[in-house]
Amino acid sequence: MAILAVLSEDENGDPFLRRNVLAKIELRSNSDTLLHRANAMRPKILVDNQADRFVNFVYNGYLKSCNTKQKQEFHFQNRERDVAIIVYILATGLRVSEIINLNLNDINMETKQVTLTRKGGKQDTPSFSEWGKNYLQRYLDIRHKYNPPKDEPAVFLAKSPANQEGHRISKRAVQTFVERYGIAFGVPNLTVHKLRHSFATNFLRNNPGELETLQA
Known about the structure:
Blueprint: H1 34-40, H2 50-61, H3 69-92, H4 96-100, E1 107-108, E2 113-114, E3 116-117, E4 123-124, H5 130-142, E5 157-160, E6 163-168, H6 171-185, H7 192-206, H8 211-215
């Protein structure tokens, strides 16, 4: 097997480079605190009672934005699911990949905890609020309407004209409906990632001494 060597000197032992070519590159120092950066994002995220207003809008107000019967039916079919996902992100700060990969046996409604594998393979059991539990239960009560196979473990389902059996919702589908609802609500730059920033900002505002808990 050939071994490739990385050469930094010539045959006389002198270095190929006699000056640091990266020395003139200006390094940006960011001394802002996490809370300061979070507050700077306020116009782009949901803070204070905006989160409640957004959830209520998705569930009750978005229908006014549906200008066709087909869009109305699609919204009625999916609003419990969509709101449950949005509330879960706002209430727990979970990543969209963690949300869509949840299985039914990962959720304990009595203890209001979720068992999941975090980024990096770490096992975690974050808790969710009574607020999150209520919206999740609304969705679970109608989950069967997605016509899932008996052995489908996914919590959050989707179906399409091409596949009428309920199957695990995709990351892109969640990103799409969050952006769509954000535009209708008047926050056109809202994304799944900014929903997580909303969670972080509200958490730090209400728990200013709990940065380590948030970073855990």
